[in-house]
Design brief:
- There is one protein chain.
- This protein has 105 residues and is mainly alpha-helical.
- The chain has two domains: 47 residues; 52 residues.
- It has three helices and no strands.
- The chain is rod-shaped.
- The termini are far apart.
């Protein structure tokens, strides 16, 4: 009797085994996907020191360029200060105004 009932349920698809199989398929698919992501991400970690060395060289070159730009900035600031001083001096000579609180003349 039970065997016949079980066979009828299996024929109808109401045995519950199909839902269980689809759940396991979903879990397996998710685990495989997660494993693939882990392998992909870990491959970039183990890809070698070539990428690291190239990045370090690029960073070193960028730091050298930054130091050169800082040096140029200091030179330009000094040049601007000298030009201001010359302009103030010339303005004082034209107007013959001495004793300005902004300068030493």
């Amino acid at each position: 009797m039970c065997a016949r009932l079980f066979a009828e349920m299996r024929e109808r698809g109401g045995g519950g085994g199909g839902a269980m199989r689809s759940t396991w398929r979903l879990v397996t698919a998710l685990l495989l996907f997660w494993g693939g992501v882990l392998v992909y991400m870990s491959a970039s970690l183990f890809s070698g020191s070539d990428v690291t060395e190239r990045t370090e060289r690029q960073l070193q070159r960028a730091m050298q360029e930054l130091d050169a730009i800082k040096s140029q900035n200091v030179q330009l600031q000094n040049l601007a200060a000298e030009l201001r001083c010359v302009c103030v001096f010339l303005a004082h000579q034209e107007n013959e105004v001495f004793g300005c609180p902004l300068c030493l003349w």
